[in-house]
Amino acid sequence: MALPIMIDCDPGHDDAIALVLALASPELEVKAVTASAGNQTPEKTLRNVLRMLTLLNRPDIPVAGGAWKPLMRDLIIADNVHGESGLDGPSLPEPAFAPQNCTAVELMASVLRESQEPVTPGGHRAAD
């Protein structure tokens, strides 16, 4: 049985690859993806999630935007890490669907309320 997970990320290249791997794994069932500020603005990271899920033909996965800035420090934009878009390099399609009309926290709460089984944030399985 696949482990139900929610993914919170800030795609960049590293998180884009993590999304590909999670969605390709028969051991995981991605219930939602949320995007927050990281090396780029939250608008760009949210757009990158939508672009990646469009590329992977997964508009069925609900997406929401999260925090507009880190909780404990100022937002540092690092164009030198992942480029101006936060995901420079690959040619990605424009988003074919929109995010949910809610915040990341509201989406996570909704997924947890509606699930008949525990949902793991981030995909870390607890030790048996």
The amount of helix comes to 25-40%
- How many domains? The number is 1
Give the integer mean of the pLDDT values: 90
The ordered H/E elements are EHEHEHHE
CATH architecture: Alpha-Beta Complex
CATH superfamily: Ribonucleoside hydrolase-like
The counted number of beta strands is 4
Please indicate the percent range of residues in DSSP E strands (runs of 2 or more). Answer: 15-25%
Oligomer: single chain
Number of separate helices: 4
CATH class category label: Alpha Beta
Strand order of the largest sheet: 3-2-1-4
3D shape? globular
Entry summary:
This protein is an alpha/beta fold and 128 residues long.
Report on the architecture of this protein.
Helix content is 32%, strand content 16%. With 128 residues, it is an alpha/beta fold. It has a single domain (3-121), classed as Inosine-uridine Nucleoside N-ribohydrolase, Chain A (Alpha-Beta Complex). The chain has a 4-stranded parallel β-sheet, sandwiched between helices. It is globular, with a radius of gyration of 14 Å.
